[in-house]
Amino acid sequence: MLGLDEIQWGLLLLVVVAGFAAGWIDAIVGGGGLIQLPVLLLIPGLSPVQALATNKLGSIFGTTTSAITYYRRVKPDLRTAIPAAVFAFLGSFGGAVVASSIPAEYFRPIIVVALIGVFVFTVAKPSLGEIERERKGHRRHLITAILIGLLIGAYDGVMGPGTGSFLVIALVGLLGFTFLQGSAIAKIINVFTNLGALAFFIPLGAVRWELAIALGIANCLGGYLGARMAIAKGSGFVRALFLIVVCVLIVILGWTVVSDWMSAN
Predict the structure, then answer these.
(1) Mind listing the pLDDT tens digit for each residue in 175-200?
(2) What digits encode the pLDDT tens for the residues 224-244?
């Protein structure tokens, strides 16, 4: 196993920069894994499972920092966040078990189609997430929140990129929160999806701790600044950046699907 002193300084700097950028984007709309995970896969000798596990540990520093920042300034609805987060933990643990045995390329085409649907839905509803909608029954609201946590948590355990974006659009589109409130609640849930995956990966010995700590420090700074910017700019800014991140996710994951299909034929 390579130590930090054996990794090229240029590559280590790239990991730290990617960690900061990922923390910043994740804090606002999610999608930071799109930056962080591919950079980790450049590290010589790091397997895909090790990259995924190290990414989770590094990310949890940033998501925790941004969740605390949002909590202090936005006061997210904990009656929604906590039940969703508990089931997100369970879903993510199950997803991590699946990730250790099933190649990610099996899931990518489904994710690309889902992202296109999210983009079209958001563009078609310009007023979506501007004001908070009235709740339609506490029980229905709670069940929907639990299902969001469980399903998106499972996805995060399997793959990860775009988890925050899926959480935000589900909280805005299905539960009626504003984009700012949705981002705040998504960060709390995201902490638990990372914890769920790590509950499987750490005993497996898949985490590269020296890389994860360097990544985590950069993630913390990016997460704090991203959350502060989202709070200062409001839901309109969050929505605009959300659409940009979803577009980038569609292009990159779509290209990966096409490349996988071409190499298989």
Answers:
(1) 989 999 999 999 999 999 999 989 98
(2) 999 999 999 988 888 888 888
Nearest one of 39, 110, 54 to 253, comparing CA atoms: 110
pTM value is 0.83
pLDDT digits (tens, 9 = 90+) for 107-132: 667 778 878 888 888 888 877 777 77
What DSSP string runs through the chain?
Answer: ---GGGS-HHHHHHHHHHHHHHHHHHHHTS-THHHHHHHHTTSTT--HHHHHHHHHHHHHHHHHHHHHHHHHHH---HHHHHHHHHHHHHHHHHHHHHHTTS-GGGTHHHHHHHHHHHHHHHHH-TTTTTSPPPPS-HHHHHHHHHHHHHHHHHHHHHT-TTHHHHHHHHHHHTT---HHHHHHHHHHHHHHHHHHHHHHHHHHT---HHHHHHHHHHHHHHHHHHHHHHHHH-HHHHHHHHHHHHHHHHHHHHHHHHHHHHHH-
Q: Exposed/middle/buried for 203, CB within 10 Å: 0-12, 13-18, 19+? A: exposed
What number of other Cβ atoms are within 10 A of residue 75's Cβ?
Answer: 10
Give me the torsion for CA of 95, 100, 105, 106, rounded to 10°: -60
d(C-alpha 98, C-alpha 57), whole Å: 18
The answer to whether residues 86 and 192 touch, using CB atoms and an 8 Å cutoff, is yes
Under 8 Å between Cβ of 69 and 135:
no
Q: Is 255 exposed, middle or buried (0-12, 13-18, 19+ CB in 10 A)?
A: exposed
Model pLDDT for residues 153-164, shown as the tens digit of each residue: 998 888 777 788
Q: 133: how many CB neighbours lie within 10 A of its CB?
A: 13
